[in-house]
Amino acid sequence: TNCEYDSAAAFEEAGAITDIQIFRNRDATDIRESVSCFEKAIDQAQIIMFPGGFSAGDEPDGSAKFFATAFRNERMKLAVERLLHERDGLALGICNGFQAMVKLGLVPYGDIWGQKEDSVTLTNNTLGRHISHMAHLKVVSNLSPWLSLAEEGGVYVNPVSHGEGRFVGPAEGIQKLFERGQVATQYCMPDGRISMDDAYNLNGSYFAIEGITSPDGRCYGKMAHAERRGRGVACNITGNQNLRIFEAGVRYFAD
After folding, report:
1. DSSP letters along 122-135, please?
2. Is 225 a known active-site residue?
3. 4-254, what's its fold?
4. What span, in angstroms and rounded, lies between the C-alpha atoms of 107 and 93?
5. N or C: which end of the chain has fewer CB within 10 A?
6. Angle formed by the axes of helices 245-254 and 4-13, to 10°?
7. Beta-sheet strands, E only, within 14-119
8. Contact 213/249 with Cβ under 8 angstroms?
9. 123 burial class (0-12, 13-18, 19+ CB within 10 angstroms)?
């Protein structure tokens, strides 16, 4: 994809040691070697991140589809399960990485189960095209370790850049996510009011949902690019741009 370097930089700024893995699929040998490398890397990690960005020409479901296919491999799937359930690990997905986590079932279920008939999903923006904009986000639940350093009720500003970021699903299922505190972040107005207006809910997500977590909060997926910040980035934009999710992820293991 084209966001792994920004993501690695954000983690490294927070004190993490990163290891960018590339899944090669030119032939069967490449795939076997990549599976082995990924399995080994995951078994040595405390956090796995599915970065955002384009791949496969950004065809519909492009990189998310690629991620999901790769991680359904039994060896990679078991490595992720060991990370999450035996070592208390964390998982993060941003933009297309969020799409991948939804397709895999890591959010909202917390396991690689795939999607069910009544699952939530991410689909085409109501605008019908790619959007690139700064979005205001409200933290409505900070039960997740990823949001332990964010202020509940706080408003943050992150860039969005996607064509398929509209969060949709059955109303009853989404209501259960709210009740369990799994809806972590919503699109809002600058004053913090949740809004369905397309000036603020830029992709038309149901209930203005921007990010959700697994039941235990250790898997977090979001659309807005929290990694795209730093010196010289969006310096003409007012508002708090730092959700501190990368710092929170590192502190989860350091404290």
Report:
1. EE--TTSS-EEEEE
2. yes
3. Rossmann fold (3.40.50)
4. 9
5. C
6. 50
7. 47-50, 90-94
8. no
9. middle
Contact status, residue 136 vs residue 190, Cβ threshold 8 Å? yes
Instruction: State which amino acid sits at residue 90.
Output: L
Under DSSP, the state recorded for 153 is: T
Provide the pairing of β-strand 121-123 with 131-139: unpaired
Domain-wise residue ranges, the chain: 4-254
pLDDT tens-digit profile, the chain (255 residues)? 578 999 999 999 999 999 999 999 899 999 999 999 999 999 999 999 999 876 555 555 556 788 888 999 999 999 999 999 999 999 999 999 999 999 999 999 999 987 887 899 999 999 999 999 999 999 999 999 999 999 999 999 999 999 999 999 999 999 999 999 999 999 999 999 999 999 999 999 999 999 999 999 999 999 999 999 877 888 889 999 999 999 999 999 987
Name the active-site residue from 3, 164, 225, 247: 225
Tokens of 146: 């990823």
Amino acid 37 reads: C
> Is the omega angle on the peptide bond into residue 108 within 30 degrees of 0, that is, cis?
yes
**Helices (DSSP H) in the chain: which residue ranges?**
4-13, 28-43, 62-71, 74-85, 96-104, 106-109, 171-179, 245-254
**Element of type H or E holding 253:** helix 245-254
User: Of the listed 95, 188, 210, 247, which one is catalytic?
Assistant: 95
